[in-house]
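Quick one:
INPUT:
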């Protein structure tokens, strides 16, 4: 688990999110930047912890009965990890709707899923910590660099230690950080529409240790993602993972 980052953007009562779903059981993983603050708080300007009308999604400091996760005991750390593993399919599972887009545009076309007792996918992030504001709105470049640096080796461990058949790198930030790890060389294999001005996002592919890595510059979970680009991505994935 990650070192506790001393930054003001950290959601106060959050805990590190080592994964969404169980990577030990997953055949594939999607890779994003960092957990949404809405995994721990109501959102839309309301910083109240989940747990009232909206059930909690993960094990936070309130559940643990502590002030801060800066020094978790072994039992507390295991509780946090188990909460991550049960994210999509636990007794009290309440997955954030953001994952529905990755399910629709990436996993379902490839024949995988986050959901249900036979889930085949999990989600990982470059950074384990939820921030408020969201990543793109963090003004401090040094804060982003610190978070990426602190979690870099843990990410390397996850991508090389679990037996993933495929890892899907969602967005340019995920692709760029993956390149820094030096796990696999990525080569352009396709392009999809980036915006109405005619820009194009590259789709890349690489392979290492039996795992195939696909990545694309388009962030499938973002509100601003090109609808045309998303449809082109779906078609590419369907053609790359033909149904039997």
């Amino acid at each position: 688990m990650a070192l506790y980052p001393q930054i003001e953007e950290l959601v106060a009562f959050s805990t590190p999110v080592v994964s969404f779903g169980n990577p030990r059981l997953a055949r594939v993983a999607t890779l994003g930047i960092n957990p949404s603050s809405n995994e721990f708080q109501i959102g839309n300007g309301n910083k109240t912890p989940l747990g009232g009308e909206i059930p909690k999604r993960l094990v936070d400091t309130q559940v643990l009965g502590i002030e801060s996760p800066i020094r978790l005991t072994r039992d507390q750390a295991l509780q946090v990890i188990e909460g991550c593993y049960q994210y999509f399919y636990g007794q009290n599972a309440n997955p954030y709707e953001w994952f529905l887009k990755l399910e629709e545009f990436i996993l379902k076309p490839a024949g995988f899923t986050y959901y249900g007792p036979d889930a085949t996918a999990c989600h990982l992030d470059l950074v384990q910590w939820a921030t408020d504001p969201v990543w793109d709105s963090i003004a401090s470049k040094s804060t982003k660099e610190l978070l990426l640096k602190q979690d870099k080796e843990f990410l390397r461990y996850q991508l090389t230690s679990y037996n993933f058949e495929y890892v899907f790198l969602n967005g340019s930030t995920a692709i760029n950080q993956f390149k820094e790890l030096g796990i696999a060389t990525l080569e352009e294999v396709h392009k999809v529409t980036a915006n109405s001005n005619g820009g194009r996002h590259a789709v890349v592919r690489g392979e290492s240790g039996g795992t195939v890595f696909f990545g694309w510059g388009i962030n499938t979970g973002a509100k601003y993602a090109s609808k045309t680009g998303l449809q082109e991505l779906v078609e590419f994935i369907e053609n790359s993972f033909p149904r039997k």
